[in-house]
Amino acid sequence: MSPVSEHDQKRGTLGILAGRGPLPLAVADAAASQGRAVFIVGIKGRTDAGIERHPHTWVRYGALGQTLARLKQAECRELILIGPIDRPRLFQFWPDWGAIKVLPDLLKLLRQGDDGLLSGVVAYFEKEHGFLIRPAEDVAAELTAPVGLQTRNAPKDQDMADLKLAIEIVRAHGAEDLGQGAVVAGGVELAREASDGTDAMLKRVAVMRANADARAEREAPSRTGVLLKLPKPGQERRVDLPTIGVLTVENAAKAGLAGIAYEADGTLIADHKAVVERANELDLFVLGLPAGTSEGQV
């Protein structure tokens, strides 16, 4: 463990608001390995139980007042929001008094797209309660997705043509604050990411392709198509960057895709080594596009 610097002592405990998936724990582990005190707020039924190896608390979905109280009791000054969280739905979101007090503002935010909602949440924690929101990669630089080909397999000409079309689709989709991903195969758009996320989109593609392919039970069709993940143009990049993990690779393989592409420095990879190893095992390519791809700079 690295010694705690005087600068880190002045910054206090690092608070982590944890959503689903492996990233919250990866960020906490990275901070702790640097000697930084961490405190994680996990959401019951959503956040991985692995966070319990660090100082933590559990709150129900909607317990905003309790969340703020716990963060302040832990003397958190800096805050990382990491891991996807589903939009609140009736009978799943039970606000406590802290949330009820700002319910009109919350309802306004919920009428916006995902980026508008997240930008509003960031502003609430910073302007109303004095937290400094930090991007996860400031603490865990190893999560930042690198540029270039990461795997043994490389995209073929058709894959690059599909990727070019996917970039146009995701840029337009993201500009409307509607999603960060799409699947294109053989010059045809198969799916766009919706609020249910990348894995759900890939599962839809797998079912669609299996139903459409009369040969599916007799022979394995060749892999075609690309999953592309990009940040939205103008996105608040301290929260909700596109994420790729081992499960993404496995679902892409089940969907019959040839590979995955993402924007370098605009995507987080949970366990880069494991992602590359699994992609190589499944004969998929993983390709990092230059930074700025989502903004049309390349």
What can you tell me about this protein's structure?
The chain is of the alpha/beta class. It folds into two domains: 6-141, Rossmann fold (3-Layer(aba) Sandwich), CATH 3.40.50.20; 144-295, LpxI C-terminal catalytic domain (Cytidine Deaminase, domain 2, 3-Layer(aba) Sandwich). It is built from eleven helices and 13 strands. The protein has helices at 6-11, 23-33, 64-73, 97-101, 103-110, 114-128, 136-139, 157-175, 198-212, 246-254, 272-281; strands at 13-18, 38-43, 56-59, 76-82, 132-133, 148-149, 181-185, 188-192, 226-229, 243-244, 259-263, 268-269, 285-289. The strands form three sheets. The chain has a six-stranded mixed β-sheet. Helix 2 links the parallel strand 1 (13-18) and strand 2. Helix 10 (246-254) packs parallel to helix 11 (272-281).
- Please list the strands of the largest sheet in the order they lie side by side: 6-13-11-9-7-8
Q: The CATH topology of the largest domain is what?
A: Cytidine Deaminase, domain 2
User: What Rg, in angstroms, do the CA atoms define?
Assistant: 20 Å
What is the C-level CATH assignment of the largest domain?
Alpha Beta
Domain count, please report it.
2
Query: How do the helices and strands follow one another from N- to C-terminus?
Result: HEHEEHEHHHEHEHEEHEEHEEHE
Specify the number of helices: 11
